[in-house]
Each structure stands twice: as C-alpha cells, then as structure tokens.
Design brief:
The complex is a heterotrimer of chains A (222), B (343) and C (465). Chain B is of the alpha/beta class and 343 residues long. In chain B, 39% of the residues lie in helices and 21% in strands. Classes of the chains: A alpha/beta (222), B alpha/beta (343), C alpha+beta (465). Chains A and C meet through helix 1, helix 4 and helix 5 of A and helix 5, helix 6, helix 7 and helix 8 of C.
Chain lengths: 222, 343, 465
C-alpha cells in the first residue's frame, strides 16, 4: 500500500514516516501544497493523509481541487484545529475522515483501515492459510466446519499471524500492534486474546503455537 | 267700594314717619306659630288672591302674611319714592314693575321653579310672571239684544257709531291717568292698532265712564249701568261669570293684549327668603294647575283657556320703559284726554 | 450581535418622548394663544355689538328730537329702548339733556359731552347705580338756524349679559383650545412616530439579520441618519475583522499546541517500538499518556472556547437528531473498536426533528461518547437511545464503566473537575462542562445518573419544538 503524507512540519512528518515504515507501508512525504499536487499527478496512492495548515495554502483548497478532479483516492485530514469548527467543512469538502493531532497510531491505523474498507480499496481482502479463509472486509474466519465472526482485536491479531505464517511474534510486538499505547494493559492480556483465537481455530487446519520464551506463530496442523 | 286708608306707623312702623302712598285694602293672615312675616304689596284685590294666600299658609305654617292692596301707581310710589319695606310686590302693571327692576329696586332670586320659567316670562331673574291675562271686551247680554257682537275693533267702532242711543254714557274703560294697568293697556293698544285713537275718539263722543279698576267696571256691566267695558281684565270677568251670568266676554280677533302678572322682591325686603318661597309657591306646578280653578288667573305655563291666534302678549323688557318716559307720558295723556274728554 | 452588546444599554430619555413633549408644549402654547385670540376677538365682537345697538338707540332718540315753539321736544320711539332688550336682559338708562338740564330720563345719568356737535357717538364705561354700565353719548343740535340748541342723548346699559356672553365665549375658547391641543398632540404623536420610522426601520433591519450576518446595513435612511448608518457599518467592518481574528486565534493556538505534541507523541511511539526493555517501554508509555492528557486538555480548552464563541453567535438549522447521532457514532466507532467496545443505537421511531447548531450539538455528543468510550472497560457495550420524555428529545448514553461514584454531579459541570474515580484514564471534567453548555445554549439540560456497578447514564434533554 502506498500512502502520501502532506505535512509541513518536518519532524512530525519524519516520525510519521518512520512509524508507517515499521508496519511495512510505503509512504511519500510532501511538505507543501505544490509538492503534494506534483506527487498526486504522477503517482497512484491508496490513501492521502493531509494536513490543513500548509505554508503555501490551505489544505482544504487541495481537497476541493482533488475532488473536482474526480480523484477517488480517500483522504484523511490531519487537523490541529478545533474539531468543532472544522468537522462540517472538511467532510463537506470531501474528506473521508479526519484525525486530530496528536493522534494515536493505533487509531490512525484503524481509521485508515475503515476508510479503505469503505472505498473497497483493499485489493486483497481474502487471505487463505491451511484451509482457513480470513475475510478482512467481513472480519470473519471461514473453514470447513463453519464461519466465525471476529471482534476487532481478534481480527487484528489474526491479520498479523495470517500476513506472515510461521513467523514468531513476541508478546511485546503483539501488544504494540494490538493495544493503543494509552491503554494500560498487562502482558497476559495477549494470552487472553491468543486463547480466544485458538478457540476459534479449533477444528480447522491452522493453529497458533507457543514458542517458548519467544512468542507465538501460526502453523498448519500436521 | 273704594276707600282710602292712610297707612300709619302702626302698620309700617319701620318707616318711622307717616307715609304718603294710598292703600285700598289690607288683610293680615296670622299664622298659628308665626315666626316670620311676609309683607305683600299687590294690585290684586283680596278676594281674588285670598285662596292663594291660604294655600301658601298651609304649606308654610310659620308665615303670617300681611297682604296690602294698592293701585299700581301707588305701588310705584311706595317702592320707588318711599322705599316702603315690603317683601314682595305683585302687580299687573308690567311697565312699572319693569321700571322698578330696571332702576335697581328689586333683587335677584333664582330657584328651581324660576329656572323652569320660559325666558319671556322673567326678566333679569328679578321679575317673574306667574299669570297670562288677556284684556277683554265685556258686554252686557241685555244691552246687546238685537245687536251683532263685534269681533274686532273696527266693528266695535262701527257698532258704537251706529247705535249711539245704546252706548251713550254706557261705555266703561280705564282712566289711564290713575290706573297703571289702564295706561299699560292703552299704550299697548296705541302700538298695536291705528284704530286706537279713533276708538278713543268715538268712546269720548259717547261720554265714556272712566274707572280705576276692572272690578268696578264689571260691577257696572252687571248692574246695567254699562253696556260694555273695554280693556277689562279677562280673569276678573271670568271669575265673575263663573258665579253669575248675564255678561259675555268677547274675544277680539284682530288682536288680544295679554298682560302678565309679575312678582318681584324689592331691595328693601326684610324677609327676601320668605318672599322667594312665595314666588316658588306661585310658580309651583300644583299652584299653577289650581290657579285657574280657584282664582281664575290663567297660569303662566300652558295655554290661555280660550286661546286664539291673535294673542299679543306684552313683552317684558326695556321697551316697556318708553311709555313711562316723562315727555312720552305727558304727550300720550294729553292726546288721550283730548279724545276721551272731547276737550 | 445581541450577545456582543450584551450589557444592558443605558438609555437616556426617549427621542420620541422628547419630540412628543416638545411638540405638545408647542401645541399647548399655540392653544393658549388661540384661546386668547378667540376670547379677545369674541369679547370684542360682543362689546362691539352692544356698542352698535347703544349707538343705534341713541341715534334713534336723537332723530326723534324736534323743536316746538322754541322748546325741544321728544317723542321717545318705542324701538329706541326695546331694541336694547332684544339681545340681553340688561338694565337700560337714558337721559336727554338740553343745555345742562334734563329734558327726560334719569337725572343722575351724567356723561360729560363735548360741546361741539358730533355725529360720532362717544362711548364710555363707568359705574352707575352700583353696576358697571356702558354708555353712549350723541350730541345733536336742534332748532332753526337762529335758535340752535345743543341736545345730548345718553343711553346706557349694564354689562351683565356681556359678562355672560364673555363667560360663554371663554368656555368655548377653552373648549376650542383644549380640542386644538388634543388634536395637535395626537398629530404630533403621529408625526413623531413617523419621523422616527426610518430609525426603527434601520434598527429592525439590523435586528432581523442573523448573528453571522455582518454585511453592511443597506436600509433606506434619510440624510439625517446617514452618519449613524455609516458609523454602524464601519463598526460592523471592525467587528467582523475582530471576530475573524478571534476565530483565527483559536485555530492558530490549536495548531501551535497540537503540532509539537503530535510530533513528540509519534516519535515516542516510534521509539517505543524499537525498545526491548519492558521497564523502558512502560516509562515511555507513561510519557505518552501524559502527552495524551495534556493534548486532550488543550483540545477541550479550545473546544470550550469555540463552543462559547459559537453559543454567543447561536445560529439554528433544522436537523434530524437521529442522523446526527448516527454520524457521531460512526465517527467514533473506530476508536471504540480498538477497545472492542460495541456501540448500539436504538430509537423509538418518533420524530426527532430539532432546531440546533449542528456543530455545537455534534461536539457535545462526541464529548459524551468519547467519555463513555474512555471510561468503559474493553469488551463492553455502550447503548445510545433516542426517545421523547414529556417535552424533551432525550439522547441517553449508557455505558458499563465505573460510573460517577462518589462524585458530586453538580461539580462535574465545573471546569477541570474530574470524577474522583477516573484515576489513570485520560480525561477532563471540561468535557461534561462543554456538553452542559451546549445543552443550555439549546434550551435543554444534561442529567447524569450513576448506578453502582452498572455504569453511568448521561442524558441530553433538548426541548421539543
């Protein structure tokens, strides 16, 4: 997936880019409206993250131009302004959602996912492993013995494992991915979710294996 | 009938001195519990006014009434020249009454009853009319047997000229020199018709008898001394006619002089309030309706009994002063004397 | 506008009242003048009438004078005195005077006459027999050429009826004066109202407009009002500039505070991911939580400023509360989902049309829901209900959190007060303050019920119609 970040604050932009890179997303950074227009004209993006206050203009102008050009790429606005006054005009101008600064990455990710889901922009929404199908649009797990609904954290956990079967994920890593940093959770919270997931995978061809002192991994049953 | 009484200090003690005016009659109507005295000076004889005074006293039991009768000229003398202390002056001589009021010998009186009077029946709220009495021609039915009864003055002149044997020495009228009312009637006649002087001339040739008062003239007609009496007070004649027959009151159709009997309270009045009560009594609705029945005085309100179109009421006002003018009176009396006395 | 000029205006007198009073005063003076003129003219006319009749009377007497054998004689005409009685009941006196001796009439009626013959009647007023009289004196010469005698005719009349006429005239003059005054005052009321109509027109043109309508006033105004209107317009220009500045200021402040916080937070998160040591990690989490709390406080402070700003310029639009609730829930569900919190919305199917400032109201709803999500444990439910209660639309948010135990609910609306039990959860009492202020700006109120162990219920009451 390819993202465009339009943000004039260099430090923030670098931090955001770093953070996205951790999760393996490709992200371009434009520090002005002019740059942003140039990027959009030349490259296809799956999602644009747009700051409002830019040195050479108002992000809202970019937004209305973007919509007039019938460009369907979803836009999430990053705003530092009052949520009260911006909400209506942003959504009216065609933003798909907005996040107020400072933002929790987990939340930003969730919103991006929600926007992309609404847009149907996720190319591959079904992942199969060992006869178990994860439908990321429906948030369901299907196997021979039936279909199970996943709650949000369960779904994200499944997503992590299905994206890299066989790879060992440490508890710390999973916690970082699953919980917001402002949530106060203990390490065994992960064990609770892994336990739930195991229950849902029971009777299918896949299972989650504990790798002692290292973490967990998704494997196929022999 | 006519007698003179000199009024002495006993009666008019307040004058201090003997007074010079002549009175004709006097009666005191004492009250049971008299606290007030009403002194009335009037030209109306006691007989005709008697019922009114008695009625007044039933309503005002504490008032004794001192009723004095005098000729209108003597009334004038009493009030105008001698300042006699009367509380109420009632007179048929409207001109003299008007002069008294005009020259400041009367006082103002205003009450609910005087307010009811029409404007022509009062003057300056000092002079109040309470009767309307026409001057009438009274004839003896016996003397007029076979004669046409005249309906206007021209016919009367013709009749008298044509029948001197009937009328010679048998005509009566007022002596204008002594009777105030006679003078008033005569002067009004002289204003109202051109025939007046001819009538006087004819009456003069027929040796007309001159009288002081209506009563005496009516007596004359009744006694057969007179065939006719000219300018007699209709009210007196009516009164008499109600009791005895034999005379006719002829309604003149050219015009009928109507005199109003008036009352005023002199400046010298000692009990003006009681006098006011008498005026209110005279103008009272009940009194007015009884007036015609008991006294024969036609009431001031309402129509004269045998009302005719030719009514010529004498108007109150300064016009009445004209014939009281010295020169005017002298000239009028001179003319009258030369006609009636054929001098 | 109203809120900005919110302080009560100190009025010093009313222009209309002052106009009316001044016009009435003028009307009063004119009435007085009219009264005096009417009385003067009428009095004069009445006394002229008396004079004319007196003169006519005297002349008719003079005309009746004749000489007989060297003696002056008089045939007093009836009309000479009767004419004086036609218009009044006044007492009449006369005297005809030949060479100083009375020929006839009242001897004591003495009026000094000029010796020369004059056709002109001479008038005088004096007291006679205790009453004021008006007298006319006419002098004639009677007799043949050789024997000329000067005769003076005096006719006098009391003035009682003149006084009566004068009294009647005074009454009429008063009535006319009063009527004139009333009519003039009525007209001046009307005129004052009319004269001030353009002022009212301008005032209503300004009053009618919405709170955000800061266009210059273009009401038709007479030249006298032009300075006022242009002053008003220049004030409007300055006001809108100042309003724009405060809006910009809030936005700018938000930007300045939030962007660095965002940078720090994001960098902290990046660092957090790279750390392995759990001790270091939890230290960093503490830091992030502190950043979150300060940014939330800053956000709510700015929200609060904006809410106040908007509430002052309150501008209502017809909205559907059901849609607004749905939008808010949709907007916050990603946040809720992160904690596996399910938000369910139910309504009674009634009509939830409401006139409101949608931005204010959405902010309030978001604050309530945000609080509910923040204070709810993972894997819980939040129930949003829309229903009618007597005269109110009610939007209630029921969560399964810790509720507001031990909390003085009144205090909860005060700025910066926090529930004592929220402990480690990032939050600020300002949220509920904002909700409360928004509710009141719409004529409603907020009710919080808290059942021990069953979570809290925050209900927003908004008046029906």
């Amino acid at each position: 997936m390819r993202f465009l970040l339009v943000e004039d604050n260099a430090q923030l932009a670098r931090a955001v880019c770093d953070r996205f890179a951790i999760d393996g997303h490709a992200i371009d950074h434009a520090s002005s409206l002019a740059d942003a227009i140039a990027f959009v004209d030349t490259t296809h993006y799956d999602l644009i993250l747009l700051d409002i206050m830019l040195p050479d203009g108002d992000g809202r102008d970019f937004l209305s131009r973007h919509r007039r050009a019938k460009n369907k790429t979803p836009v999430i606005v990053l705003t530092a302004r009052s949520q009260v006054s911006d909400r209506i005009s942003l959504l009216d101008l065609g933003a798909d959602d907005y996040v107020t600064k400072p933002f929790d990455f987990a939340e930003l990710e969730a919103r991006c996912r929600a926007v992309l889901r609404r847009q149907g922009g996720v190319a591959q929404n079904r992942i199969e492993f060992a006869g178990v199908v994860l439908d990321s649009l429906e948030a369901t797990l299907s196997a021979k013995n039936g279909t199970q609904n996943l709650r949000n954290r369960e779904f994200r956990l499944v997503e992590i494992f299905f994206a890299a079967p066989g790879q060992i994920f440490s508890k710390n890593h999973l916690m970082d991915r699953l919980f917001s940093l402002s949530d106060d959770v203990s390490e065994n919270a992960i064990e609770v979710y892994v336990g739930r997931l195991r229950k849902k995978l029971d009777g299918t061809g896949a299972q989650i294996e504990t790798v002692r002192s290292l973490g967990y991994r998704l494997v196929a049953k022999e | 009938m006519r007698f003179f009484i000199l009024a002495f200090g006993l009666i008019f003690s307040n004058f201090g001195v003997c007074v010079g005016f002549e009175i004709e009659d006097q009666r005191i109507y004492p009250a049971m519990n008299a606290t007030q005295v009403l002194k009335v000076l009037s030209t109306a004889d006691i007989a005709s006014f008697d019922p009114l005074i008695k009625e007044f006293q039933t309503q005002n039991t504490e008032v004794s009434v001192n009723y004095t009768v005098a000729s209108s000229a003597q009334v004038m003398t009493a009030i105008y020249d001698e300042n006699a202390a009367f509380d109420l002056v009632i007179s048929s001589a409207m001109d003299l009454q008007t002069k008294l009021a005009n020259d400041g010998y009367s006082q103002t009186f205003i009450s609910k009853n005087t307010a009811r009077l029409p404007n022509w029946a009062k003057w300056q709220d000092q002079l109040f009319a309470f009767t309307q009495e026409p001057a009438a021609l009274v004839i003896s039915d016996k003397a007029f047997e076979g004669l046409t009864i005249p309906t206007n003055r021209e016919q009367l002149i013709e009749l008298m000229r044509a029948n001197p044997e009937v009328f010679e020495g048998r005509i009566g009228t007022y002596d204008v020199r002594t009777s105030g009312l006679g003078y008033l009637f005569a002067t009004q006649d002289s204003r109202n018709t051109d025939s007046f002087w001819r009538l006087t001339e004819v009456m003069g040739r027929l040796k007309t008898e001159l009288y002081c008062c209506s009563g005496a003239m009516i007596d004359g007609v009744y006694q057969g001394k007179l065939a006719l009496a000219y300018n007699v007070l209709g009210s007196y004649a009516e009164n008499r006619l109600a009791r005895e027959g034999g005379i006719t009151i002829v309604p003149m159709q050219d015009y009928l002089t109507v005199m109003m009997r008036t009352a005023l309270i002199p400046k010298t009045a000692e009990s003006p309030h009681v006098a006011g009560r008498m005026i209110d009594f005279l103008l009272d609705e009940n009194t007015q309706t009884k007036l015609a029945q008991t006294t024969g005085f036609p009431p001031i309100f309402g129509q004269i009994a045998d009302s005719q179109k030719a009514l010529r009421p004498i108007r109150l006002g300064p016009g009445l002063l004209v014939f009281l003018d010295r020169l005017k009176r002298k000239a009028f009396v001179r003319n009258w004397e030369s006609s009636i006395l054929q001098k | 506008m109203k809120a900005i000029f919110g302080t009560t205006l100190i009025t010093r007198g009313s222009m209309q009242r002052r106009l009316v009073i001044q016009l009435s005063l003028i009307a009063f003076l004119l009435s007085l003048l009219l009264f005096l003129i009417v009385q003067g003219v009428a009095d004069r006319a009445a006394s002229d009438t008396q004079d004319n009749i007196l003169a006519a009377s005297a002349i008719s007497i003079a005309d009746a004078l004749y000489s007989e054998g060297g003696q002056v004689q008089l045939e007093l005409p009836y009309s000479a005195l009767s004419m004086l009685g036609t218009i009044s009941e006044d007492r009449v006196f006369y005297r005809v005077n030949v060479d100083g001796t009375t020929l006839t009439g009242y001897d004591d009626l003495v009026v000094s006459a000029r010796s020369d013959v004059s056709t002109q009647a001479e008038f005088s007023t004096f007291s006679y027999r205790g009453e004021p009289v008006r007298a006319v004196s006419v002098t004639r010469s009677v007799g043949s050429q050789s024997q000329r005698t000067l005769v003076q005719v005096v006719v006098a009349q009391t003035r009682l009826s003149l006084a009566q006429i004068s009294y009647r005239i005074t009454l009429w003059a008063v009535a006319i004066g009063v009527a004139f005054f009333l009519v003039a005052t009525g007209l001046s009321l009307w005129a004052a109202h009319n004269a001030l109509a353009p002022l009212n027109r301008v005032a209503s043109a300004v009053t009618r407009r919405g709170p955000n309508d800061l266009r210059p006033v273009r009401a038709e105004a007479p030249a006298e009002l032009a300075p006022l209107v242009s002053a008003l317009n220049s004030f409007i220009v300055r006001l809108s500039a100042s309003l724009a500045r405060s809006e910009d200021f809030i936005a700018e402040a938000a930007h300045r505070v939030r962007t660095p916080l965002a940078t720090v937070r994001t960098q902290a998160e990046v660092i957090h991911r790279s750390l392995q040591h759990s001790k270091n990690k939890s230290a960093l989490r503490e830091m992030i939580r502190a950043i979150d709390e300060s940014s939330r406080s800053a956000g709510q402070l700015l929200d609060h400023a904006m809410v106040n700003f908007r509430a002052d310029q309150f501008q209502a639009v017809d909205i559907d509360l059901r849609e607004l609730v749905a939008e808010t829930v949709e907007r916050l569900s990603p946040t809720a989902e992160l904690k596996d919190i399910a938000i369910s919305v139910s309504d009674t199917g009634e009509d939830f049309a409401f006139s409101a400032d949608p931005i204010l109201l959405q902010n309030a709803l978001r604050n309530v829901l945000d609080n509910a999500i923040k204070y709810s444990p993972p894997d819980s439910d939040i129930l949003v209900k829309l229903f009618h209660d007597s005269n109110f639309h009610v939007i209630s948010f029921h969560d399964q959190g810790r509720g507001f135990e031990g909390l003085n609910l009144e205090n909860h609306f005060e700025r910066f007060k926090r529930g004592s039990n929220v402990g480690d959860i990032v939050g600020s009492g300002l949220g509920l303050t904002i909700v409360n202020e928004v509710a009141r700006a719409h004529g409603g109120h907020v009710k919080i019920t808290s059942n021990k162990g069953e979570g809290a219920c925050v209900s927003l009451f908004l008046p029906l119609a």
